[in-house]
Structures are given as structure tokens and as C-alpha cells.
Design goal:
The chain is α/β, with parallel strands linked by helices. The chain has one domain: Ribosomal protein L13 (Ribosomal Protein L13p, Chain: A, Alpha-Beta Complex), CATH 3.90.1180. About 35% of the residues lie in helices and about 10% in strands. The chain has a three-stranded parallel sheet. The chain has a two-stranded antiparallel ribbon with strand order 3-5. Helix 3 packs across helix 5. The longest helix has 13 residues. The two termini are about 25 Å apart. The mean pLDDT is about 95.
Length: about 140
């Protein structure tokens, strides 16, 4: 089992590594999802995600998540071959948590150097802040 720490990691770059591990048959856990980062102007990111949430019909979908753990899960899902059986089975091996559960406190966590926020030279927003802007009830 691989445990990734999403603190100050760019969500898309982290998700690409996670998707690759999932397709190789690994069990993957991501902790601190609310601290993952989306690069770009925060107002634009809010507009993009708000548009995704408002798209479609409230009863029939498509449905897009509001909480940071579910948003990060959805980003990883976009990098998996969802319409194939191997993609759906890989997605079931993924667990994403807000914060850090007790069972993973003393375990070694993987951090990806290429995904570190210190490499960014632009504005960014954390998934936790984006979730609050989208109307999620803060539970972290």
C-alpha cells in the first residue's frame, strides 16, 4: 500500500502518479486532501468548478463533488480509463482522506518533488478553500 501526502502538492501532478500506481495494481491512500493545490487564478478556478457543479440536471446529473477529498478523487478518476473494467477496478483501490487518520499517523508518506507548490510561479488555491467557496460545510 502506498500512502501519499497531498500537503502543498499540485493536485493534477499528484493525481497522475497516483493513477499510474493504481493501474499497476497498488492500493493507494491520499491524506490531507484539503491541502492539495490547484494552480491558476483562484477566481477563475472557482468559476470553472462552479460551472461544473451547475451543469446538467439536479436529478439526472452529471454530478460533481464539492468536498476536497471527493474533488481529488474525481481528478484521479479523470486520469483512469473509466469506461474499461481495469479503470473502474483501479478506482476502487483508491482512498482519499481529509486530514490524517490515526492509522496513517506514523507511517511513511510519499511526497513528489515535481508536484511541490514551491515550483509554482503563479497564483494558486487549495482544495479546502475552493470547497468552502463552493458551499461545502467545513468539516476539516
Amino acid at each position: 500500500m502506498k500512502i501519499y501526502d497531498a500537503t502543498n502538492q499540485i493536485a493534477g501532478r499528484l493525481a497522475s502518479y497516483v493513477a499510474k500506481d493504481l493501474l499497476n495494481g497498488e492500493q493507494v491512500v491520499i491524506v490531507n486532501a484539503e491541502k492539495a493545490v490547484l494552480s491558476g487564478n483562484p477566481k477563475m478556478k472557482f468559476r470553472e468548478f462552479k460551472q461544473k457543479r451547475d451543469r446538467g440536471d439536479p436529478k439526472k446529473g452529471p454530478f460533481y463533488p464539492r468536498y476536497p477529498d471527493l474533488i481529488l478523487r474525481r481528478i484521479v478518476r479523470g486520469m483512469l480509463p473509466w469506461h474499461k473494467d481495469k479503470g473502474r477496478k483501479a478506482y476502487r483501490r483508491l482512498k482519499v482522506y481529509i486530514g490524517e487518520p490515526e492509522e496513517f499517523k506514523n507511517k511513511e508518506k510519499i511526497r513528489i518533488e515535481e508536484a511541490d507548490v514551491s515550483k509554482l510561479k503563479c497564483k494558486y488555491i487549495t482544495l479546502g478553500d475552493l470547497s468552502v467557496m463552493l458551499g461545502a460545510e467545513k468539516r476539516w
